[in-house]
Amino acid sequence: MEQYVISGGIPLVGDVEIGGAKNAALAIIAASIMADETVVIENLPDVRDIRVLLKAIEEIGAHVERVDRHTVKINGSLIDSVRVDYEFISKIRASYYLLGALLGKYKKAEVAFPGGCEIGSRPIDLHLKGFKALGADVKLEYGLIHAQAEKLVGGHVYMDKVSVGATINVLLAASMAEGKTIIENAAKEPHVVDVANFLNSMGANIKGAGTDVIRIEGVEKLHKTEYSIIPDQIEAGTFMFAAAATKGDVTIKNVIPKHLEATSAKLIEMGCEIEEFDDAVRVVASKPLRSTQVMTLAYPGYPTDMQPQITTVLAISEGTSIVTESIFENRFRYVDELSRMGASIKVEGNTAIINGVEKYTGARVAAPDLRAGAALVIAGLAAEGITVVDDIYYVERGYEDFEKKLALLGAKIEKVSSEKEIQKFTLKVS
Ligand code: UD1
Q: Are 402 and 396 in contact (CB under 8 A)?
């Protein structure tokens, strides 16, 4: 088991390069198998979730060739199975994008039913409702979702709730259905747009991605393409909060500042200065940070994937803040860990009431999920003394070289795998 060990209290200063968006990449990898020609995907983040999904598509017969650390070639012409086992779904829920991709291409898919996860129960009823609206017969048997259609035909899909996953899954299937599909109340997240752009570059006919009505004219075949994934807005936002928490001055490069507007707006309210460039943002935290109110919402609202990071910084900002989580029901599990570092946070239902304290003090904490794990690292960077973050495999699901990028900004952080190494680090920094 690996840990991060951090000696906190050092302002982060310098430049950091952001990688490709994990959540866009997951859907794009699934979409790539819909072509029978070779698809080249660039700016792929080298993180665990991506490696698992690449393995899952290899398992069903797709040919996967790593060109370099961030580029992959995928060819879906030799797929010989439409069944994705629980082994993959249990590691990476987004393997369920293979339902939409396989159903669209082969009119048949069998994918293990994903369970809940660390942040909530996460139903997939809307995905299935969407497939049914395209004429598929969908049933659950022996833990597998079977989706099948004699003929997949375009349909009208109204999403009762804004869902990134359901929007993308229906988009995938509808791209190769006969006729026109309309998705209403669609998710507008940047990665939904990226997936639509990717599919269009393979010959799909999708209009309106990024608005709440997406129109898809199905096509018979999708062809080869070369595509570069958008920058990861959540990785970028995480570094923005790390800069704020440590009273630093960090320029976050290779981003689309528009995608970071909700995060930037909150940091400005909290007293940071934000400078926007064409493809970079600079965060300067030279003044004391102050409280604010936040509610997570679908894009362009404040992202739920940035909720633990802002809560962590508000806990060391002056005054009382309120953070309301409106997307997932179980996303405050890290608060107990922050309390062990000195935070004063009370969680009532989906709301956290935060009384800002002067500082964190280092402690041993455990990451309960991906983004909360990153938030605990932020707390450790700001804390006085040594923090050890356990269970960092969660963090590695979505952050490439996290500790290396932070170290380049001046942080004292190392990835270790034994108590002895923790002691060695402690001796070195004291
Ligand atoms: C995606 C992201 C995740 C992010 C989330 C919200 C990926 C791989 N993951 O997750 O990091 O936190 O968007 O921005 O891109 N819901 C239903 N029925 C459904 C589907 C969803 O009730 O069939 C509910 C969910 O429980 C949740 C809400 O809709 O309350 C939004 O979830 P959704 O946007 O689908 O999240 P994911 O796509 O799973």
A: yes
